[in-house]
Amino acid sequence: MDWNKARKIDAHIHILPEDKRLEFIKYQGEECTWGKAAELDVPVMYHSNPCRTGFHDSCAPDKINKMIKVFTDITFITAHMGGMKYLDAFSGCTWVDISFILPELVMLYGIKQTNRILRMFGSDRLIFGTDYPECNYEGYFSILNQTDFNEGEIEKILYGNIASIMDI
Ligand SMILES: [Zn+2]
Asked: How many CB atoms lie within 10 A of CB 21?
């Protein structure tokens, strides 16, 4: 992995986003800190699928919101649209990715309500993500094709938004 392209902090390391240890952490011998991300001008995608009782664990969107407010020069991407706390991600986070959560929303709410939730975020904030690689990605394309997003909007979700963030 080229650490000069992106950073991912997974909540499974059990460190809160605001934990001062993230100023010093090394992963696989590479410095992996907020400061380094800002210095390199790379986006930070943060796993966010809180599922403990009360949905308030270390990856909850409100935790990521604190980092967005403090590190204003870092582009944060909230993975999984904040999971079942997607309303917090909507109001408190910036970019969100649809990995894992998209088929979950369809299973729970059906395509029409999922469409409404995606529309609430808008095609400018949604990013196709791979933070849950066990998924069948063809299913994501099928769901997006059932929404009322037009071809240009779907292209932004699948590629354009992340390409602009990554400057590629
Ligand atoms: Zn994740």
From this structure: 10
Centroid of ligand 1 to alpha carbon of 107 (angstroms): 19
Q: 47 CA distance to ligand 1 centroid (A)?
A: 4
Q: What residues are neighbours of ligand 1 (ion), with CB under 5 Å?
A: 47, 79, 131
Here the tokens at position 153 are 């909007």
Q: Which domains does the chain have, with CATH numbers?
A: 7-166 (3.20.20.140)
Tens of pLDDT, residue by residue over 74-115, are 899 999 999 999 999 999 999 999 999 999 999 999 999 999
Alpha-carbon distances, residue 144 vs 58, 115, 137 (angstroms): 30, 9, 11
